[in-house]
What we know:
heterodimer, A: alpha/beta, 9 helices, B: alpha+beta, ten-stranded mixed β-sheet, 24 strands, elongated
Amino acid sequence: xxxxxxxxxxxxxxxxxxxxxxxxxxxxxxxxxxxxxxxxxxxxxxxxxxxxxxxxxxxxxxxxxxxxxxxxxxxxxxxxxxxxxxxxxxxxxxxxxxxxxxxxxxxxxxxxxxxxxxxxxxxxxxxxxxxxxxxxxxxxxxxxxxxxxxxxxxxxxxxxxxxxxxxxxxxxxxxxxxxxxxxxxxxxxxxxxxxxxxxxxxxxxxxxxxxxxxxxxxxxxxxxxxxxxxxxxxxxxxxxxxxxxxxxxxxx
Amino acid sequence: xxxxxxxxxxxxxxxxxxxxxxxxxxxxxxxxxxxxxxxxxxxxxxxxxxxxxxxxxxxxxxxxxxxxxxxxxxxxxxxxxxxxxxxxxxxxxxxxxxxxxxxxxxxxxxxxxxxxxxxxxxxxxxxxxxxxxxxxxxxxxxxxxxxxxxxxxxxxxxxxxxxxxxxxxxxxxxxxxxxxxxxxxxxxxxxxxxxxxxxxxxxxxxxxxxxxxxxxxxxxxxxxxxxxxxxxxxxxxxxxxxxxxxxxxxxxxxxxxxxxxxxxxxxxxxxxxxxxxxxxxxxxxxxxxxxxxxxxxxxxxxxxxxxxxxxxxxxxxxxxxxxxxxxxxxxxxxxxxxxxxxxxxxxxxxxxxxxxxxxxxxxxxxxxxxxxxxxxxxxxxxxxxxxxxxxxxxxxxxxxxxxxxxxxxxxxxxxxxxxxxxxxxxxxxxxxxxxxxxxxxxxxxxxxxxxxxxxxxxxxxxxxxxxxxxxxxxxxxxxxxxxxxxxxxxxxxxxxxxxxxxxxxxxxxxxxxxxxxxxxxxxxxxxxxxxxxxxxxxxxxxxxxxxxxxxxxxxxxxxxxxxxxxxxxxxxxxxxxxxxxxxxxxxxxxxxxxxxxxxxxxxxxxxxxxxxxxxxxxxxxxxxxxxxxxxxxxxxxxxxxxxxxxxxxxxxxxxxxxxxxxxxxxxxxxxxxxxxxxxxxxxxxxxxxxxxxxxxxxxxxxxxxxxxxxxxxxxxxxxxxxxxxxxxxxxxxxxxxxxxxxxxxxxxxxxxxxxxxxxxxxxxxxxxxxxxxxxxxxxxxxxxxxxxxxxxxxxxxxxxxxxxxxxxxxxxxxxxxxxxxxxxxxxxx
Lengths: 252, 829
């Protein structure tokens, strides 16, 4: 099993079927993929390609119908709900497109929430450092509603970083942001990969965002169809176009 | 976890307002009911006329039934023996033992009684108040009296003048020898010379014990103690002045317990519904917490803690108005004659603590349910658009539903087979709750089915709008059920209880009218004189006339199970009984009711294995046992049986010691020719008034029921409004989207209106089902029909107000939500 340890995330023949019997919908159809430690991977694909399901299964938010997922060397299928939650708390960080902060808590409280849930007292130094990194030191007492979209997303990144997780999952993190803010956010996501050897997995449909990653993998109809290392926005856009048009060619 | 809950609550007060109000009002009602109960148990009556006596010795009004463990509260004043006065006077430490006597008496102004509640006393007992002579001298001759200053002023007499006083139904002339005064005594009093008072009173009510200086009260009390009498001290002494306090108090204890229990159950129901709604509204947030590392267990505890923080706050604050509310309830009940107004409202910490405990327990129970549901939130829900909840059936839910509905069936069977008459009402309260909670557990499913059925007529009548509304309600069956269920609860509690009351009263009236055949009735302010009866009998056209008195007693021997309320006793005059009463006699003759005799319902005689000529022993209202020979048997409607005794025998064992009415059969001419003008205070009433008089007693019970049911319904209404307002406000975004896609404001409002209509119809239909399930068995056992008797408008009013409430609670917040520009509303959230 030594090979499992080399990957932050490893999926082996993962299938996910929604619904039962004849009218079940296959969202993931036998995906096998290893994401090495210290890398930044973007997952792309047209709508309905299974991007979100991929993220849910890889992060242990949803259980696959078949196949195995190892996260940081742990077989997720063997864990009960509470253990799975603890694993998420300790080794995974999440960043979503929206609705990702608790409106009732201040910036500082939102950021330290995972530590609080783990029953740890949030160390002041770590909080200061992580807020410094996302540039929100002077906003620690604000409520989410008092912040702009970009600032809210930076709070979410700080929250994902504070527990020093092995893997950070991001679901369309720039989807609701303007181009300039999006670049700042992607830069922030890039950083822990470079400096701390953490792993980042990002689902996106934006070729520019994807170009910040070390590698892009493409999904279509629940299957892994392509990959691209050291991507540029143009190259990504080209592959995407071919993916979207491919089924049309077949049908003709 | 408490810290997180606290922080979260501080910022999100809005969504907890509903829960706060539910707990606050629920706790307040339970506390107030507890206050009523404590007041009734303590039955504190400040001593007035006996205030100067540190110890008051009175007859023991509580009597343990020979046929079991139950005790009954005797309704008539239990006298004390005159020997006891001497015995107590001899107890060391006692300075004086003063007998207190009382009898009905009032002064007359012209021919009008001045104070119908006035009482005649002996001047010897004036010292017990203490009354002092404000002017004049004490009464020594039999034609002298002392009036209290208030009564003298109202009568318009002063010292030395003549005054006419109605004593025991007979007007007599007296001379005012003095004016008495006692601060703090409200009741009017007329003091007679000791010898005269003793003749008039016939028995001793109580003994006021005056102590020597430095005497030990406890020791004296212990020395006095003996079976059949009670030595009262402190706030208990007033009971000796007002013996009917005890009876009213024991009624109030039951009443307070029943409604307190009902309020507690409704509180649980309402809190569960508001908490679940609050949890559903923040499902996305809960899912987010799950994603970033909150375990289901932690989530469960967070929801519980939040609920408990709110509940503790609300229940603790409820203590503030609970006292005033309880006092207000008590005043209403006292003013309507449930128990004498002389009782003082009092609650200590026990009702408050009970209310607090009940509210917290209900909240915790509700929080466990809500937390259980919340813990099932899957983390993925944070990432996808919040969908419509589809699953609601869980094994526990189905099991509970079966248990509650089974309970409803069991109660129905018990009501129909075991119970009869007015007692049948006792199962109805729990039955309403059983059915309502059982159906509520199946709420979402029932809502779905009912909407599916209703959508066809709705579509037919309203076209596309109705179709859309029906689809909406069906898709949102679970949140809709949260509005439908309280509506069902409120309407079923209201209709079931009110119709139960009207049916009971109606049946009692009917039983009473059927048993009395008299054409007219005479009543007197201080009783009726024998001379009057003789005159009435001599009046041409009067075919029969007989005195009448009602009381309560129990059968001592033979032993048989009996209601601890005792038997309803009617004292009739044997010679007139057959003419004025219309009981179907099956054996013997009512005319033989003279001396120590009794007439029994056939069913009871059968139960006792006794027949005509056999003896039974009865314990009458004043604790005296009498051996009676059975002279007649009659059939009576089950549940409304009474026992008939000769009026002379029964009247002697009542507090006033005399008949209260004269029943007569006579032609209309004869009735108008009755010699009542020479008898002040005597009133002639026809048959209708006879029933009306009887009805006032029933109306008291009805009114009490309306008040308490109204209180619980008002509480449920708050829950309905809460739910609907929260649900509508929550859908702002949805409405905005509908407008962005081309719906006008009017169209959206119309659709909301149709949704309200659906919610109302489904809620009321289910409420009617619950009502029928409760009333059916009750009415069956009471009157052999499944339908209640009572005016239809009550049902219409309940339905109308429920519909109005639903529409107001949906359309007003809906209209407010629609005032925002659709783009802003859609962007928000």
